[in-house]
Amino acid sequence: MLNEDYVKAGFGRALELGKRPALVLIDFAAAYYVKNSPLYAGVEDARASAFRVAEAARKAGIPVIFTRVEYSEDGHEGGMFFKKVGPLKCFIKGNPLGEFTPELTPLAGDRVLTKHYPSCFAGTAFASQLVAEGIDTLVITGLSTSGCVRATAVDALAHGFVPVVVAEAVGDRDPAIHKANMFDLAAKTAEVISEAETIKYLQNL
Fold first, then answer.
1. 117 by DSSP, 3-state: which?
2. What pLDDT, in 10s, does the model give residues 123-162?
């Protein structure tokens, strides 16, 4: 019923994927995978999917951009976000929970973008860098669906890029929260496509 209501109202129309995409892998940090971490989310499947998408992106020769979060001891770079979300202390410089996991880490030729807020665009030169390279589509993987993934997809749309969220390559600490945000992303913001569809898209560039 809900899907039918949204479709009837005109939500979820398709966006055409562009010819010059970039892949962003959002915050695949140890904090989400170490079980005694306050940010542990049980999202190992999303990491495995993102690894496969990254391999396809490298083969396609498109930009592969990892993001990471890092703060000073007082967290001033994160402003109200750092004050609001206590577990962001995991990303204070020097904390191993803020590092990439061995299973998914930047390789030679990949890029790393350090950010302080949920969106990859907030307080960074991300948009201008993408524009300078003629990027028209942002393929989005990462963590978490309700936070940095959603914020990045919304800002990608607002900056004129086609946001593509890879369904299996994003995750959240609660399945219900993940599902609700994926529904909303597909209805209002992004193209939500499978890992297989994403890899086929990259292979056909």
1. coil
2. 999 999 999 999 999 999 999 999 999 999 999 999 999 9
Amino acid at 47: R
Distances (CA, A) of 124 to 20, 69, 98, 137, 164: 21, 12, 19, 18, 20
Q: Which of 31, 148, 193, 199 is catalytic?
A: 148
Q: In what order do the strands lie in the sheet with 21-26?
A: 111-115, 64-69, 21-26, 137-143, 162-171, 191-193
- The helix (H) or strand (E) run that includes residue 192 is strand 191-193
Predicted confidence (pLDDT) per residue in 4-13, tens digit: 888 888 998 9
Active site residue 120: no
Q: Which domains does the chain have, with CATH numbers?
A: 20-203 (3.40.50.850)
In the chain, which stretches have pLDDT less than 50?
none
CB 30 within 8 Å of CB 100: yes
Beta-sheet strands, E only, within 7-153: 21-26, 64-69, 111-115, 137-143
